[in-house]
Amino acid sequence: MAKFAANLTTLFTELPFMERFAAAKAAGFEAVEFLFPYDYAKEDLAAQLQQHGLTQALFNMFPGDWAAGERGMAAIPGREAEFRNNAEQALQYAIALGCKKVHAMAGIVDMNHSIDSHRDTFINNLRWAADLYAEHGIEIQIEPLNDRDAPGYFLAHQRDALELAKATDRDNVKVQFDLYHAQIMDGDLSKLIAEIGSYIGHVQIASVPERHEPSEGELNYPHLFKVLDKHYAGYIGCEYHPRNDTVSGLSWMAQA
Ligand SMILES: O=C(O)C(=O)[C@H](O)CO
Ligand SMILES: [Mg+2]
């Protein structure tokens, strides 16, 4: 049975960020996720979760200068110290929010370094962070992003993420399977979900190609929820941009 988390970065954007927790609860969500919490004190975020009885399903490590195009640095050679600082900062937030999944964004390929050295950097950084996070029972997620939205991103394909997660040799490094990106880059989603199987650590959804509600576009979500049910029991993050207002767009959930 699918259970959904509201992505507060993309849903309820009609409201200021701190008011989105209450709105998610009122709309029937038991869990939330968001991209980056670092503009807010972790105590204030934790208070919102507690006040509204919500679970924090996931958030991301600090990605570097987002406005300048940065998308993390976990795979970028030469930025290991920065990665470690960001991993430690995210861990403090995860502990405060009771959150068991943190996404480590790989980054945009640095053409001054080989692909092999990016791969080695990614694996070494993930091992270091996974060992630190394991003491708190927290998983690290790696997520392939499609190359239309994130040109040059180091990780674009689900099978590459699976291979990298295995190569870390750490039980708490998992694949964040976002069906929107996976359909654009890989397709054959029913088989792909079964293949990634127990390495799926988190799931996100949106329509393809527009990234709106999962009730339109080229994916058959009622079927995909049944497939996911066989391989994944966690929250499914609703990481889409509502076509109109958030609440009226939630009618798809009744059929999920
Ligand atoms: O873009 C996505 O799909 C994500 O989930 C990332 O966390 C942000 O780029
Ligand atoms: Mg995603």
From TrEMBL:
The lineage's top-level taxon is Bacteria
The Xylose isomerase-like TIM barrel domain sits at 21-255
A Pfam family reported for this protein in Swiss-Prot or TrEMBL:
AP_endonuc_2
The Swiss-Prot or TrEMBL record annotates one GO molecular function as:
hydroxypyruvate isomerase activity
The active site consists of 143, 239
Keywords from the named record: Isomerase, Pyruvate
Q: Which residues cross the membrane?
A: none
Where does the secretion signal sit in this chain?
Answer: none
Any single biological process term in GO: glyoxylate metabolic process
- Alphabetized PANTHER family for the sequence: HYDROXYPYRUVATE ISOMERASE-RELATED, ISOMERASE
Sequence similarity: Belongs to the hyi family.
Q: What is this protein called?
A: Hydroxypyruvate isomerase family protein
Q: Which organism is it from?
A: Ferrimonas lipolytica
